[in-house]
Amino acid sequence: MNRLCLNCKSELHGRVDKKYCSEYCKSNFNYELKKNKAVSLFKSIDQQLKLNRRLLRDFNKAGKSTVRVEKIVAAGFNPKYFTHYWKNKKGDVYLFCYEFGFLKRTENNKSKYILVEWQDYMN
User: Fold this and answer.
1) Is 103 helix (H, G, I), strand (E, B) or coil?
2) Distance (Å, rounded) from C-alpha 31 to C-alpha 17?
3) Stretch 10-36: mean pLDDT, rounded?
4) In this model, does residue 46 exceed pLDDT 90?
5) How many C-alpha atoms does 31 have within 13 Å on its Cβ side?
6) CA distance linking residue 4 with residue 115, whole number of Å
7) Residues paired with residue 87 on neighbouring β-strands, in sequence order
8) Among 19, 38, 36, 17, which residue's Cα sits nearest to residue 7?
9) Which of 59, 69, 65, 75 minimizes the C-alpha distance to 106?
10) In 3-state terms, what secondary structure has residue 70?
């Protein structure tokens, strides 16, 4: 029985336990295996949290700003993913992605996010 390379299916020569005909085939086989593997739930959540943090930081250059919901959502922001929250004395609940937070407001029938950066007094 002929043994075949797992990647290119060419005939193998040499050791009995050999699986690939070359280093290229070994590398390519494992690359394709990882590429086709489904992304884990943990990794996809972590990626979204990091994207949310970056977008909140990029849209909030002044420390506190306002942005239309549709603008930041179009950039990939998903408000369902956050790391923690902070409730102010008025009862407003700010959701945070690490040190950058947001609060949804509606003014003149337009949804906006108030963007803030974590401050010491929020502890």
Assistant:
1) strand
2) 21
3) 92
4) yes
5) 7
6) 59
7) 93
8) 19
9) 69
10) helix
Please classify residue 101 by burial: count the beta carbons closer than 10 Å to its beta carbon, then call 0-12 exposed, 13-18 middle and 19+ buried: buried
Residue written as token pair 């040499």: 14
**pTM of the full structure:** 0.69
- Name the more confident of 31 and 1: 31
Higher per-residue confidence, 123 vs 50: 50
Give the chain as a DSSP string.
---B-TTT-PBP-S-TT---SSHHHHHHHHHHHHHHSPPPHHHHHHHHHHHHHHHHHHH-SSSEEEEEHHHHHHTT--TT--SEEEE-TT--EEEEETTEEEEEEEETTEEEEEEEE--GGG-
On the question of pLDDT at 11 being above 90, the answer is: yes
pLDDT tier at 1, thresholds 50, 70, 90 = low
In the numeric block, the tokens 């506190």 are attached to 64
